[in-house]
Amino acid sequence: MSGSALDSSVLVLNSSLVAVDLASVRRAFCLLFKAVAEVVDVSEGSYKFHGFASWRDISEFKLRNGLEKDESEWVCTVSSEIEVPRIIRLLTYDRYPVNGVSLNRRNLFARDENRCQYCGLRFHSSELSIDHVVPLSQGGRTTWGNVVCSCTECNKKKGGRRPSGAGMKLVRRPGRPVRNPQIKLKLRRKKYYSWKHFLDDAYWSVALE
After folding, report:
1. Hey, which of 14, 65, 97, 102 would disulfide with 206, CB 3.0 to 4.6 Å?
2. Residue 203 placed within a domain
3. 190: burial class by Cβ within 10 Å (0-12, 13-18, 19+)?
4. Is 172 within a domain?
5. Domain, as residue range, for 140
6. What tens-digit pLDDT sequence spans the chain (209 residues)?
7. Cβ atoms within 10 A of the Cβ of 81, count?
């Protein structure tokens, strides 16, 4: 399996076709192989469902006939290559996602799109820190409405003060995301476009582990 394929995500639906989770490619194939999930193949607005064997046969057919798409990713096995599915459905799981998005570093950086909320510039995650708008020393708390991404220079300039005290302004007011911010970032990539058929703000609020 290529490194890029390993880094991909697979959207997981419950038996009613409601998005409930994200899975790694490896985890998705394990679920398919154990026959507890099936592939949901989205094509021109219609859905087709395939078990592991059926999906493997379709993958081999595509390869033999040169039908693989540029945005597809493939898993190499001893005897064949199988296309990485973008969406799978759990066959017997009918629960709905639990409301709430976990406040963690990964979700915070995704919410702020790796942009310093004071100077507005984007940075690599390693160059960003988490800043409390109202400092902890002044009664601030670690909540979605009080933490933002900050670059090193802006963090140093602000120090232990509130933005107004440091002559700084926030790019936007921080708040709790309606749904997992990881989804917004992934949907910018063509290979995840098929997810849009199943992402409903009324249901999608699953926090990544």
Report:
1. 97
2. no
3. exposed
4. no
5. 105-166
6. 445 677 788 999 999 888 888 899 999 999 999 999 999 998 776 889 999 999 999 999 888 887 776 668 888 877 778 999 999 999 998 887 665 678 989 889 999 999 999 999 999 999 999 999 999 999 999 999 999 999 999 999 999 999 999 999 999 999 988 677 777 777 777 888 888 888 764 444 444 33
7. 14
119: domain CATH number?
1.10.30.50
Residues 85 and 162 in one domain: no
Q: Does the residue 187 lie in any domain?
A: yes
> What's the number of domains the chain is made of?
2
Give the Cβ contact number of residue 21 at 10 Å: 20
CB 128 within 8 A of CB 153: no
Instruction: Tell me if 175 is assigned to some domain.
Output: no
